[in-house]
Each structure stands twice: as C-alpha cells, then as structure tokens.
C-alpha cells in the first residue's frame, strides 16, 4: 500500500514536470512517504529525514516533504516542524492531493506548509495520476481505511474509516491496466472482505471478484489483505472457480491463542480460523496460504505462544511475515502491561525457525513438477537468470533472458532451497 501511494506521489510530481533521478544528491524534491505501523518503521523514516539535512545546505532550493501515516499521528506535525525545521512540506494522509499546491506556494512565495486534516471519512478521490514502478504487476486500491481497531494497530487512527471505491471505477481502472499491458493486478485494502459495506448499492467483495473474474484474457489477480473474520465461503468458491484469480490467500492470524486474539480484538477464534483454512484447502487444494504473526503481545504467556507455534504447524503456511509487537501510542494495547523484550526476542527466533522448517518442507514438494510462472524481472545478482511467481505466489528463479519478462512460461522445478525455487523452462 505504501509503495502504491508512493506511485501516486510520483504521479503528481511527474504531472508537474518532475522526473525520477538516480540519486538523491541530484534531486530537486525529496518526498518521504512514511509508515508508522511499528516503531522501527517510524525510526527509519526519521533517520532518513535526518540524513538529508546536509543536501539542503548544498542545494537550498531542494524541497523536502514528509507525507504518509506518521504525519497523521497526534502532534506529529508539530514534532516534525520542531525537530526537522528544514522540512518544507508536511502533509497528512488526507492531504496528499495538496502536494502540488504546496510545492507551487513554496516556489512562488517561499511559504512552508503543514496540512493535516483529521477527517476520518474524507471523500474517495478518483482519477489520481499514478507513476507505476512495479513492472508486470499493478496495484489497485479498492478501498481505504479500516474499521476494525485491532488493539495493537495504529492504522484506523491514521487512515480513517473504511471507504470503498465504486465498483464501476475499480473495474474501469482494472481494464485500463490490462490495456496498458499489466499481466497481474493486486487489489488493495486493509480488509478487502468488507469491501462495499459502506456503499449503499449492494456492492460486496464477492460481487467485485465475480465481475473481475468475468474479464477475459490471460492475466492474474491477487488481493490483500483478507481478515479471517470476514473471508467467507462465497469468496473461496469464486477463487476456486476462476482461472484468473490466483490460488493464493494472505490470511493474517496474528496469534494462535484465543485469549490473545480476544485481547487483540480480532473477532475470531483459532477454531473458526482453522475451519476457514479447511474450507480453503478442500476447495483450492494447491492454494498458497500466507499470514502475519505477532509475538510478545501484552499478557502472552509461553502457553499462548505454543498455541501460535501449533497453528503454524497445522496450517503449513507457504510463508509468513513475523513481527514483534510494537507499542503504538494511542492504541488500547499501549495501556496494557508490556512483556520483557528478551522474551519477545526468544519467541520470534523460535517462530521464525519453525516457519522456515515448514517453508523448506513445502518447497521440496514443488521439486520435479511443472508450474506456470509469470516472469517478472531479472533475477537479482544472477546474470542470465530471470524470476517470477507461480499462481500460488511462490518465487521461482530460472534461466532466461529479459525478453521473457511479462510472459507466462512453464517452468520445471529442479531444486529448492528454503523459500527459493529454481527451475528450467519446461520443454513443449
Ligand atoms: N490490515 C491487515 C494488516 C495491516 S498491518 C490485517 O489486518 O491483517 C500489517 C501487519 O502488521 C499486521 O497484520 C500485523 O501483524 C502487523 N502489525 C500491525 N500493528 C503492529 C504492531 N503494533 N506491532 C507489531 N506488528 C504490528
Ligand atoms: Fe490494523 Fe486490524 Fe485494521 Fe488490519 S484489520 S489495519 S491490523 S486495525
């Protein structure tokens, strides 16, 4: 989501006549698109903002802007202005579209801007310019914001309530992206399964997927993120039946302990989650299932953590994003008693080791088989090799040249190494 938002920022700048430069020392403008989901993301953003101060001395005309989630936190605008007085423009998540005006104001009258609109339900904007950077895949927002208020999470505070785009606008953009040659489109939302609930026209995620599945052509559709409480059987059936919607579901569980799930305000139990997983596996046997996991949430005991390990063993995720809980100011969990960092550190190490073991085992099952891969890019640091993903979302590296990028190829997997799969283009 952050990447796609940066593409929108770049779209605004491109429209104003700016173009991408190779190095920040050559830049006329630097925009920091911040994230505050965890403390380390925020620290990194602040570190990066601090690291360009010297550039402003070399080039006093350089424009520095800070946008994104971090700016929308309470007092963030003020703190940024005090700590980083050389920043010219600070925009909240609802004010991004004002970037052009702010740049013009700065150029014409040297006036700095700090605009942070606290509106929790701003109007959904359409027709935004996008400077796409993601190769064969294009990101497509279907909704903004979140209503869930998981007790650890800052997103609802900095991104406001759920606002869905009208289905017709999403479908239009989808078709336009295919016309432009994108082979894969990823639908984005904090909880895509509640898409349409705020529209009075009966739209739902199932209906949207159904319409998308009707669009003919050779392309792939992915979506993220699904909330386990809302991913229903109808959606699973549509994925199972559609050749274009990938057999790949990201279903963040966070914790395997019912006690912790309740404290997190996730609105599902481990049993309900496992039922959904069973439904997915029976309808879509080759589905790649991935997740987000968190350790060290307040009150998490060794037993609760064992429940998380148990879920990981039961589900057999193809991969997982693993996080140590990070206190976010203003959230409910910030007021709960925190557990010692060394305990979290020990748990995250054990969790990663467990998941790695499973990823490795699953990778072995790919060996000797042929998969259709959408070739996405040159393989990093491997001359003469390219890489792409299977329908289930697994990354495959194989011998080939750049002319393959953007095409579908059948690849026979000969070797696996942890999460990596290696193969050769299969003979016809
Ligand atoms: N809307 C999505 C995910 C949004 S954030 C969902 O509900 O699944 C992506 C992931 O960051 C979350 O799934 C969670 O695992 C992690 N995360 C969010 N807040 C966090 C916090 N305070 N500390 C650590 N991890 C966090
Ligand atoms: Fe955060 Fe929960 Fe919303 Fe995801 S569903 S963005 S974790 S509040």
Count of the domains: 4
Rg for CA atoms: 22 Å
Order of adjacent strands in the largest pleated sheet: 13-14-15-17-16
Task: Count every helix, treating DSSP H or I runs of 4 or more residues as helices.
Answer: 13
Low-confidence stretches: none
Structural class, judged by helices and strands?
A: alpha/beta
From the coordinates shown, what is the CATH architecture of the largest domain? Answer: 3-Layer(aba) Sandwich
Kindly estimate the percentage of residues that lie in beta strands according to DSSP. 15-25%
CATH class of the largest domain: Alpha Beta
Bound molecules: S-adenosyl-L-homocysteine, iron/sulfur cluster
- CATH T-level fold name of the largest domain: Rossmann fold
Share of helix, binned: 25-40%
- Coarse morphology: globular
Overview of this structure, please?
The strands form five sheets. A five-stranded mixed β-barrel has the order 13-14-15-17-16. The two termini are 38 Å apart. It is α/β, with parallel strands linked by helices and 428 residues long. Helix 8 runs parallel beside helix 9 (233-241), helix 9 (233-241) runs parallel beside helix 11 and helix 12 (302-315) runs parallel beside helix 13 (341-366). It is globular. The chain folds into four domains: 2-115, Methylthiotransferase, N-terminal domain (Rossmann fold, 3-Layer(aba) Sandwich); 134-246, Transcription Regulator spoIIAA; 249-266 and 273-364, 2-Layer Sandwich (Transcription Regulator spoIIAA), CATH 3.30.750; 370-425, Nucleic acid-binding proteins (OB fold (Dihydrolipoamide Acetyltransferase, E2P)). Helix content is 35%, strand content 21%. Residues 146, 148-150, 153, 155-156, 190-191, 227 line the site of iron/sulfur cluster. S-adenosyl-L-homocysteine binds at residues 37-38, 152-153, 155, 190-191, 225, 227, 252, 254, 292, 294, 323, 325-326, 328.
């Amino acid at each position: 989501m952050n990447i796609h938002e940066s593409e929108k920022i770049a779209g605004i700048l491109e429209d104003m006549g700016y173009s991408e430069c190779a190095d920040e020392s050559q830049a006329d403008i630097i925009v920091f698109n911040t994230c505050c989901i965890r403390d380390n993301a925020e620290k990194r953003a602040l570190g990066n903002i601090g690291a360009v101060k010297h550039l402003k001395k070399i080039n006093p005309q350089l424009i520095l802007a800070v946008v994104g989630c971090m700016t929308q936190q309470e007092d963030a605008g003020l703190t940024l202005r005090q700590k980083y007085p050389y920043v010219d423009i600070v925009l909240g998540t609802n004010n991004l579209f004002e970037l052009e005006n702010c740049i013009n104001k700065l150029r014409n009258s040297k006036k700095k801007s700090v605009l942070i609109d606290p509106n929790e339900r701003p109007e959904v904007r359409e027709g935004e310019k996008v400077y796409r950077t993601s190769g064969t895949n294009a990101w497509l927002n279907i909704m903004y914001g979140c209503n869930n208020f998981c007790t650890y999470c800052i997103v609802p505070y900095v991104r406001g309530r759920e606002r869905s785009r009208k289905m017709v606008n999403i479908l239009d953009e989808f078709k336009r992206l295919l016309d432009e040659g994108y082979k894969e489109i990823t639908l984005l939302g904090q909880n895509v399964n509640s898409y349409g609930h705020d529209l009075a026209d009966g739209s739902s995620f199932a209906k949207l997927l159904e319409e998308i599945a009707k669009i003919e052509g050779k392309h792939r559709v992915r979506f993220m993120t699904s909330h386990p409480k809302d991913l229903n059987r109808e959606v699973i059936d549509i994925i199972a039946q559609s050749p274009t919607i990938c057999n790949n579901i990201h279903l963040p569980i966070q914790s395997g302990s019912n006690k912790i799930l309740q404290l997190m305000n996730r609105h599902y139990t481990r049993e309900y989650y496992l039922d959904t997983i069973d439904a997915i596996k029976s309808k879509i046997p080759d589905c790649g299932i991935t997740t987000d996991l968190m350790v060290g949430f307040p009150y998490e005991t060794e037993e609760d953590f064992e429940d998380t390990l148990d879920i990981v063993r039961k589900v057999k995720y193809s991969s997982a994003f693993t996080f140590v809980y990070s206190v976010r100011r203003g959230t409910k969990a910030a007021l709960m008693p925190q557990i010692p960092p060394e305990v979290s550190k020990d748990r995250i190490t054990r969790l990663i080791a467990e998941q790695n073991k499973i990823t490795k085992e699953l990778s072995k099952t790919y060996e000797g088989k042929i998969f259709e891969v959408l070739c996405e890019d040159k393989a990093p640091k491997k001359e003469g090799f390219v890489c792409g993903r299977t329908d289930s979302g697994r990354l495959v590296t194989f011998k080939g040249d750049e002319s393959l990028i953007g095409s579908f190829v059948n690849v026979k997997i000969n070797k696996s190494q942890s999460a990596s799969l290696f193969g050769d283009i299969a003979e016809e």
